[in-house]
């Protein structure tokens, strides 16, 4: 009998499928503390490069309920089950499959494969042997993560949409009500947002930041009571248009997690607030009259706060 050598863990994350504005709550799989999706991408990359298309290496995370049903039920009647999917949101479009053997005291994952690339060799992923009790406790916890994701979706979400010529749209969702704030490189509020999150995480019970862009003055107020945040956003218009008011309550953990997802997606898309200006990528700066922000600033993503959040 194979000895138990491996530990599995599921962590809630956000993923934007296709044209989605806000991240969908999904699940990252960690085995022995290592992000399994990243490991899979590294194994697939040489094969994708050999095809001349390195961008096809890797997969998308799937939603907690989908993973729960695969690991709790589907393995009983399917030879393999899908544990990662496609960025379009349809798992079968680009799945990673695994065979699952449930024994008396252990659960084994083996035979990783991808149905659309039968010639890709996944042997470097190896096989994993989990303690059966720990494994199914973690599988059952997927339902808790599903509920947490539902609360984030219902109460508060945030997303950033990079535009041309030095603009970013910041989307905030308060359940059924949504608002958009235009951010520009001239007054980038990303430092304000990051510092607000740091202070809230450190125990501040009252925070306020203001964003004044393109004729709309947006004020974000966050008040904390017993780890529950009351979030109020007021948008005042320069013309005679009535002000817009938005309000919700959410937990401190979910508020920070919503911003974490938004920041992660922004970084994955290659946008850096500290290197942000009105020019398109590849612009040649005039050394006499212009300053390339990359020459004078460090990457926004080097802040220690992001290092901690990447692998909590």
CATH architecture of the largest domain: 2-Layer Sandwich
Which stretches are poorly predicted, pLDDT < 50 over at least 5 residues?
none
State the secondary-structure class.
Answer: alpha+beta
How many strands, which pairing sense, and closed or not: the largest β-sheet? 4 strands, antiparallel
Cα-atom Rg, whole angstroms?
Answer: 22 Å
Spatial order of strands in the largest sheet:
4-5-6-7
* Average pLDDT level: 92
Q: Quick one: CATH class of the largest domain?
A: Alpha Beta
Instruction: State the separation between the terminal residues, measured CA to CA.
Output: 33 Å
Task: Describe what you observe in this structure.
The chain is α+β, with helices and mostly antiparallel strands and 312 residues long. The protein has helices spanning 36-50, 64-72, 132-155, 190-201, 252-268, 293-296, 304-310, and strands at residues 8-15, 24-31, 34-35, 81-84, 96-102, 106-113, 128-131, 157-162, 167-174, 177-184, 206-213, 216-225, 228-237, 244-251. The longest helix is centred in the middle third of the chain and has 24 residues, at 132-155. The protein is globular, with a radius of gyration of 22 Å. The two termini are 33 Å apart.
């Amino acid at each position: 009998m194979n000895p138990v050598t491996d530990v599995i863990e599921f962590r809630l994350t956000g993923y934007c499928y296709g044209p989605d504005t806000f991240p969908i709550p999904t699940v990252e799989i960690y085995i022995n503390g290592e992000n399994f999706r990243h490991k899979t991408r590294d194994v697939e990359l040489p094969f994708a490069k050999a095809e001349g298309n390195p961008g096809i290496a890797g997969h998308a995370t799937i939603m907690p309920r989908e993973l729960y049903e695969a690991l709790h039920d589907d393995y009983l009647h399917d030879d393999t089950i899908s544990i990662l999917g496609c960025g379009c949101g349809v798992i079968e479009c680009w799945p990673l499959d695994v065979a699952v053997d449930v024994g008396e005291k252990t659960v084994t994952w083996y035979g990783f494969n991808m149905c659309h690339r039968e010639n890709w060799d996944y042997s470097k992923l190896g096989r994993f042997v989990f303690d059966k009790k720990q494994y199914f406790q973690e599988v059952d916890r997927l339902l808790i993560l599903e509920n947490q994701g539902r609360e984030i979706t219902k109460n508060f979400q945030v997303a950033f949409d990079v535009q041309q010529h030095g603009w970013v749209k910041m989307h905030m969702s308060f359940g059924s009500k949504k608002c958009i704030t235009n951010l520009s490189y001239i007054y980038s509020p990303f430092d304000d947002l990051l510092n607000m999150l740091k202070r809230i995480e450190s125990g501040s019970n009252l925070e306020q930041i203001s964003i004044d862009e393109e004729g709309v003055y947006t004020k974000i107020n966050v008040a904390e009571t017993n780890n529950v945040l009351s979030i109020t956003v007021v948008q005042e218009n320069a013309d005679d248009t009535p002000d817009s008011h938005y309000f919700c309550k959410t937990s401190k953990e979910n508020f920070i997690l919503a911003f974490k997802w938004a920041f992660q997606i922004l970084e994955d898309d290659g946008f850096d607030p500290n290197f942000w200006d009105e020019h398109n990528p590849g612009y040649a700066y005039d050394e006499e009259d212009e300053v390339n922000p990359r020459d004078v600033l460090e990457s926004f993503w080097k802040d220690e706060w992001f290092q901690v959040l990447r692998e909590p």
